[in-house]
Design brief:
alpha/beta; Quinone Oxidoreductase, Chain A, domain 1; Rossmann fold; 2 domains; 6 helices; binds NADP nicotinamide-adenine-dinucleotide phosphate
Length: about 375
């Protein structure tokens, strides 16, 4: 048998566990080794060899960079090993009967040119069955993990009703900007917080928020929320935690819901530095429901499981989302360029929602933004 063609495989590894903010020296781009472009005979059945096209840098990856102190839903990275995360890739070789060479997939892959994805991680590879004109990078955003997070978090966990008052923190981020748009589409009044005047402007003018404020310029967060919600908040989509959560608790209405998606303000803090929640008694007094959730628990609802492998491809191209194609954070990022803005990860760890029936794929695709900072593998040389 002819020898398999080979290619150079550059890899980004985590060098050591991170404490505090991640820095460039915590990671390393290893020069490429030659790898065969065919699965080796000893790979386990169900393995898939892919060429990575887009890689995404998401907040949940930050806790995976810390020395694990407790068992999370997602295991910590192993120092010396390639960093893994969501991406878009093309299948080169497959012993998974549902994927064939040439197929496009999105899901968990490696920060490298070529990855062998082995079971059980192949369960996180969803085939992109039809992307008809939609940029593939959207599968790192609205059509990928952040889109599903925003959709299930808002519709399954928050259970919104038209006319309700919704507050979203980290509202210009990949998840938050979509939650705002879903809230608007659901007939709610939605206000977001973000960390710069430019982002606040985007929320107000492009992402359909009724109002927005810059939390960094508010000396009293509780007062800012009172100003935006004189009659209180029905739904809080929690992305940040810390002082914002405490301020929100004071402003919730009776029987309100808080969907805890993430607590990004806490991810880079060391143990002992993390914020305490001081106003938790409001949960009792106001009979609030506060629920953590993680997106993987809900994939089966929308056809993203290995049992269907249909992916979350767009089912409709109707223009329903009042957004632009402008990325609020720029369109390129690279490891080590952590500004403190997106250097944390999901710590929500529970979900009581485990419905068994599949729902139609969400009809959310429109002329939407590419919400995540992403970069192409071709950017790797500039990282050296
Ligand atoms: N539960 C799940 O399944 C799930 C899935 C995906 C994401 N998440 C969580 O959802 C949240 C948002 O994720 P994303 O993908 O939208 O992130 P993203 O696009 O990377 O945006 C994160 C934003 O968070 C804000 N931020 C950073 N540090 C902050 C701090 N100390 N205090 C307040 N805001 C801060 C920054 O915006 P500003 O400039 O406005 O501060 C940043 O742009 C994160 O907590 C993430 O862990 C959860």
């Amino acid at each position: 048998m002819a020898a398999a063609a080979t290619a150079t495989n550059r890899r980004v590894i985590l060098k050591e566990y991170v404490e505090g903010y991640p820095r460039e020296e915590h990671m390393e781009l290893l020069p490429g080794a030659e790898v065969p472009l065919r699965l080796a005979g000893d790979e386990p059945p169900g393995s898939v060899l892919v060429r990575n096209l887009y890689l995404s840098c998401d907040p949940y990856m930050r806790p995976k960079m810390s020395r694990p102190l407790w068992e999370s839903y997602t295991a910590a990275f192993v120092p010396g090993s390639v960093i893994t995360g969501y991406g878009v890739a093309r299948v080169l070789d497959s012993s998974d009967p549902r994927l064939a060479p040439g197929d496009l997939v999105w899901g968990i892959t490696g920060w490298e040119d070529y990855s062998v994805v082995r079971p059980p991680t192949t369960a996180f590879l969803a085939k992109i069955s039809h992307h008809g004109g939609v940029p593939l990078s959207y599968y790192t955003g609205i059509l990928g993990m952040p889109g599903l997070t925003a959709y299930v978090g808002f519709h399954e966990i928050c259970a919104p009703k038209a006319g309700e008052a919704v507050f979203v923190s980290a509202a210009s981020g990949a998840v938050g900007q979509l939650v705002g748009q879903f809230a608007r589409l659901a007939g709610c009044r939605v206000v977001g917080s973000a960390g710069s005047a430019e982002k606040v402007e985007l929320l107000r003018t492009r992402f359909g928020f009724h109002d927005a404020f810059n939390y960094k310029e508010e000396p009293d967060l509780a007062a800012a929320l009172r100003r935006c919600f004189p009659e209180g908040i029905d739904i809080y989509f929690e992305n940040v935690g810390g002082a914002m959560l405490d301020a929100v608790l004071l402003n919730m209405r009776a029987h309100g819901r808080i969907a805890v998606c993430g607590l990004i303000s806490q991810y880079n803090l060391k143990d002992g530095e993390k914020d305490a929640v001081r106003n938790l008694s409001a949960v009792v007094a106001k009979r609030l429901r506060l629920q953590g959730f993680i997106e993987p628990d809900h994939k089966h609802l929308y056809g993203c499981t290995p049992s269907t492998r249909r992916g979350c491809s767009p089912t409709s191209a109707t223009a329903r989302s009042p957004t632009s194609r402008t990325s609020p954070r720029g369109s390129r990022a690279r490891p080590g360029r952590s500004s403190g803005s997106s250097t944390g990860a999901t710590s929500a760890s529970s979900s009581s929602a485990s419905p068994t029936t599949r729902k139609p794929a969400p009809d959310w695709i429109g002329p939407v933004d590419v919400p995540l900072v992403h970069y192409s593998v071709s950017d790797f040389p500039s990282m050296i």
